[in-house]
Amino acid sequence: MRGVIDFRRADLRNVNWWRRTAILLGAVADEDNAAVTHASYLFHLALVANGNLADDGFKVQQKKAVETFNDYAATIMPWAERLRRRRQVDEVKYLKELYKQVCGDPDDPLTRERWRRESAALEAKTSEPDPTAATLAAVAQALAKPKDRPPAVPLD
Question: Rounded to an integer, what distance in angstroms lies between the CA atom of residue 113 and that of residue 25?
């Protein structure tokens, strides 16, 4: 991309020249961003290769190296980043549906009532109160008040 823009023919008052130039400058900036991210990734790899790192230091540097590599991959392949985010959203939706199948829908009043009954039955069975049953009862009671819930945060 470098060397494509001929500034000798620059027409600063022409909107079309600025549009063409902005597209080319965006591509040059993406190349620079990829180069910097790649250099950062190589730096983190060098730190991970250091044999004197303690276990926690190694894990921190390894995590940073993975994050930097993902940033680099997203820079050079932006479509892959969108696909990865879509897969994450689909996985969250799948886990929510699986939870609903196994435990019931927390937004359903009948399910909350069933949880309340089950927790009360568990408390009645045991001679001393079961902290799990009390926790289930507290969760069911908290879910029974939808107006007190914080607003839902969108995933994407």
Answer: 60
Q: Are 116 and 140 in contact (CB under 8 A)?
A: yes
120 within 8 A of 132, measured Cβ to Cβ: no
22-31, long-range: CB < 8 A, 24+ apart: 27/1, 28/1, 28/2, 30/75, 31/1
Distance CA 139, CA 106 (A): 10
Q: Domain map of the chain by residue range?
A: 1-101, 104-145
Q: Is the pTM of this model over 0.70?
A: no
Q: What is the pLDDT of residues 1-51, one digit of tens each?
A: 577 777 788 888 888 888 888 888 888 888 888 888 888 888 878 877 877
On the CB side of 59, how many CA atoms lie within 13 Å of its CA? 2
